TrEMBL record:
It comes from Actinokineospora diospyrosa. The chain crosses the membrane at residues 38-58. It comes from the Bacteria. Keywords: Membrane, Transmembrane, Transmembrane helix. This is Uncharacterized protein. The keyword Transmembrane applies.
Length: 336
């Protein structure tokens, strides 16, 4: 028989545990960064993915507090960042003829295949392009140039990757450091987040900037963490009045800028909603279309193996005028 004192302590501890409230649900509103993905089976061995692009890199809460210092909203400088086209949207329609692509070499039934970056479960190359010509070891990542005909890249040779002009550009952080510099601590505030997202037509999606470089290891005391600056673009309205509202809710490192003509939170939300529409996912589910990824930022980005006039027309019909469309073709034409 056990010690009576031990039994009493154990019973008392059990009653205390049962009386405690359930742990709170995680506040997922903060974690709007990264990619949320849903997988769709295209064929028995093929899987494609819908990736929804980042709306805001809102960091997870940590038991640290930003420095409690607030500049004078009446005198702080508010930069203006004018929107400019960050890339030329070129429809790379791919007919038979000179073509190139970058991918990983695989092999199936004795045939070498060049595989696009299609997310899959396990091994395999669900949308592989057969090629002839150059001998390349399986597993190599290469760029091949050749003549596309009948679904085969003939007389392939090694090439160099084409310049990537499809990157999404976000607003820069143009604010000057306040007197004393940016302070260590997390850029995190539910109150500010709620204010911004309750007014989606006014603001560009906020992001976190690391003026001294990001934290490599997620540990450290409040005074040792590198500065994190919350960057907010005011698309419509009075930036200085909005700065006052934000400062009433957040006292950490903050960069508020005037960003006329930039996309808004509402634009990002709309593109995300359309990217998940049945019309688009139905097109993606048909392996004949070769759509291997649909993502969204302020526009819908569709990655395809080969962009044809017919596929482009069907994508336009599925989306309509609900959101801007950007289609990226894995196979691209080679011009003389």
């Amino acid at each position: 028989m056990g010690d009576p004192v031990d039994e009493l302590l154990r019973a008392d501890g059990e009653r205390w545990r049962l009386a405690q409230p359930e742990p709170p649900e995680p506040d997922v509103r903060r974690w709007r960064g990264g990619h949320r993905s849903a997988y769709l089976a295209v064929a028995a061995a093929a899987v494609v993915v819908i990736s929804v692009g980042a709306v805001v890199a809102w960091p997870k809460a940590a038991p640290t507090t930003p420095a409690q210092r607030v500049e004078n909203p009446a005198t702080v400088a508010i930069p203006t960042v004018t929107w400019v086209v960050g890339r030329t949207l070129e429809l790379r329609l791919m007919q038979d003829g000179p073509a190139q692509a970058t991918g990983t070499v695989s092999e199936s039934a004795g045939q070498r295949l060049l595989c696009p970056p299609v997310p899959t479960f396990g091994e395999g190359c669900p949308i592989g392009l057969p090629f002839t010509g150059v001998q390349v070891p399986v597993g190599s990542e290469v760029t091949l140039k050749g003549t596309l005909s009948g679904g085969v890249l003939h007389d392939a040779t090694l090439g160099t990757p084409a310049p990537n002009s499809d990157g999404h550009t976000d607003i820069p952080m143009d604010c000057a450091p306040p007197p004393g510099g940016w302070q260590p601590g997390n850029a995190d505030s539910n109150a500010l987040h709620d204010y911004l997202y309750a007014r989606p037509d006014r603001f560009h999606p906020p992001r976190v900037d690391y003026p001294n470089g990001p934290l490599v290891v997620p540990t450290g005391e409040p005074g040792t963490r590198p500065p994190e600056v919350l960057v907010v673009g005011v698309v419509t309205g009075d930036p200085r009045a909005e700065l006052r509202e934000m400062r009433a809710r957040y006292t950490g490192n903050l960069c508020v800028m005037s960003t006329p003509d930039w996309s808004t939170i509402a634009d990002y939300n709309r593109a995300e909603e359309v990217s998940r529409s049945k019309a688009l996912t139905d097109l993606m589910a048909d392996p004949a279309n070769g759509i291997y990824q649909i993502s969204s930022t302020n526009e819908i980005v569709v990655d395809v193996v080969r962009l044809t006039v017919d596929l482009h027309n069907r994508l336009i019909a599925a989306i309509g005028r609900q959101a801007p469309l950007h289609v990226r073709s894995w196979l691209t034409p080679v011009y003389p």
